[in-house]
Amino acid sequence: MDAQLADVEAGKRFYGELFGWTFEEALGSSVWALLDDEPVASLAPKVDGRMPTVWTVSFATPDAAALGRRIAEAGGQVVMAPFPVGDLGTAALAADPQGAVFGLWQAGSHPGFGRRHEPNTFVWVELYTRDTAAANTFYGALFHEALFGAGAEPDFGRADVADVFPVEMPPHFVTHFRVADLDDAVGAVQRLGGRVQVPPFETSYGRVAVVTDNQGASFAVLQR
């Protein structure tokens, strides 16, 4: 997953303080976010100021072009066709039939997360959608083995957008980071210049708050 930010240096200060991440140069002006020297995310500069300031989760695939075709056939859209990212892999950007945007990642030398499901790393992504049955059909068909296969570790859910957000909020993904203490994490977000978008609430997978960083990128913190 990666954050598209107007100011990567400000992002390093915010997330470094919040999660204890360190950083090293990646490709171009992007940086790896590391926890104990293992990659947990990346921060990248927005190439166009009109682009949203967001966290984007990418689903692993052995063939981004083939998956893109299946997405289009299922009523979704390929927003950005597959393109090489040096020798790291091939990336693409897609949207589901309701408009929720997600990435695709065909690994080269970079397989993805070095650590996850631990404090201060990725733990969950929730799709907030207007039609949960349609989402089940779309994502189940695309990613059945990854989501439901033997030994799969759950880290993806979906809910009605109106359960948490105002009814006019468009469908979207919210990336969740695990924290040891939710209240402490929310306090740190506010102290660092971020804000609370949705106050703490209970879910089937833990206690969650949706927040934004000091540049407006939304994410969630989760205490399991």
UniProtKB/TrEMBL annotation:
Keywords: Hydrolase. The keyword Lipoprotein does not apply. InterPro entries: Anthracycline_SecMetBiosynth, Glyas_Bleomycin-R_OHBP_Dase, Glyas_Fos-R_dOase_dom, VOC_core. Residues 1-107 form the VOC domain. The keyword Endoplasmic reticulum does not apply. GO terms for molecular function: hydrolase activity. This is Hydrolase.
